[in-house]
Amino acid sequence: MPTTAPAFADATASDSALRRFLHGLPGVDAVGLEARAASLGTRSIKTTAKAYAIDLAISMIDLTTLEGSDTPGKVRALAAKAVHPDPTDRTTPHTAAVCVYPDMAATAVAALAGSGVKVASVATAFPAGRAALDVKLADVRDAVAAGADEIDMVIDRGAFLSGRYLKVYEEILAVKAECGRARLKVIFETGELSTYDNIRRASWLGMLAGADFIKTSTGKVGVNATPANTLLMLEAVRDFRAQTGIQIGVKPAGGIRTSKDALKFLVLVNETAGEDWLDNHWFRFGASSLLNDLLMQRQKLSTGRYSGPDYVTVD
After folding, report:
1. pLDDT band at residue 314 using 50, 70 and 90 as cut-offs
2. Distance of alpha carbon 286 from alpha carbon 61, whole angstroms
């Protein structure tokens, strides 16, 4: 089956070839990786640069509701917040997308029509991914038919961890084929992959299979996005573009709740992948509560004082 990166066609020709390629990637220096992530996290962003970074972070959010209790009313309210995060200040940028389950995609599409905010839908039996391939593909088709602009799929972590890399690769290819015009985000659930070497391998596997984005997590496990695992994925997309000319996006998701956290991640992007990724076409935050803190910090920069807890809506 073809890959989006012809230079690596031999690497994906068979299960054994893919295994050789992935296990031939340089090992990750865990101490060095974590030290660099911590060092970059100490960078200070002040005044006008901070104001710019806060607006940039707002514009990169996939505002998310992925609960069994989701209702059409909740999705419409979230869509309204995505379009006008601060109704008292229309200079506030809208978010990048609203992310929902497939059965809520049509509601989100109708609510966001003409706004410029994308509709992202999780699929492939999110979050566990424990379903037959035909069920997963039907999940994707439903979301695309409802008008989703982006599909967030989960990989089969059981297959990956047992070394069945070609199965994971072919599943991503099959999902990509069902996406049509929709962009594909491939979720690794880094908290379940156990090692940085596995995260590096998963990143390359996803990119070889045609992912438009690689994404850390579902937000449904104990360990989600961290500066270190996001730094590792940023290094992967940087190196992949250097070798193929193909640019891939990165989406850390889960556990990013404060403006301080978000700005640390933007420093990681700038210092690792570079300015080309400082755009919501190439970098996203998967979050729900993050937006509220960014809005309060934004008002603090504008007025010189913090808002009360009732300044922002409760998601």
Report:
1. low
2. 6
Do 259 and 297 contact (CB within 8 A), yes or no?
yes
**Tokens found for residue 309:** 């807890």
Catalytically annotated residue among 118, 176, 185, 215: 215
Place of tokens 């209790």: 69
Q: How far apart are CA 130 and CA 135, in angstroms?
A: 10
Pick the catalytic residue from 118, 251, 261, 293.
Answer: 251
- Closest by CA to 18, choosing from 201, 162, 261, 144, is 201
| Helices marked H in the chain | 15-23, 30-40, 47-59, 72-83, 105-112, 133-145, 157-161, 165-179, 190-193, 196-208, 227-244, 259-272, 290-303
Catalytic annotation, pick one of 152, 212, 261, 293 = 152
Give dist(CA 188, CA 202) in Å, integer: 7
Angle separating helix axes 290-303 and 259-272, nearest 10 degrees: 100
Closest by CA position to 143, among listed 205, 196, 173, 185: 185
pTM over the 0.85 mark: yes
Task: Specify which residues 285 forms β-bridges with.
Answer: 61
Residue 304 has pLDDT above 90, yes or no: no
Decide: 281 and 59 in contact? Cβ < 8 Å: no
What's the CA gap between 212 and 282, in Å, rounded?
9
Question: Is residue 152 annotated as a catalytic residue, yes or no?
Answer: yes
The Cα–Cα gap between 223 and 131 comes to 23
The token pair that represents 174 in the structure block: 């099959």
Instruction: Give the confidence band of 222 by pLDDT, cuts at 50, 70, 90.
Output: confident
Q: How far is CA 103 from CA 64, 70, 92, 120, 284, in A?
A: 14, 10, 29, 12, 23
Q: Where are the alpha helices (DSSP H) in 180-217?
A: 190-193, 196-208
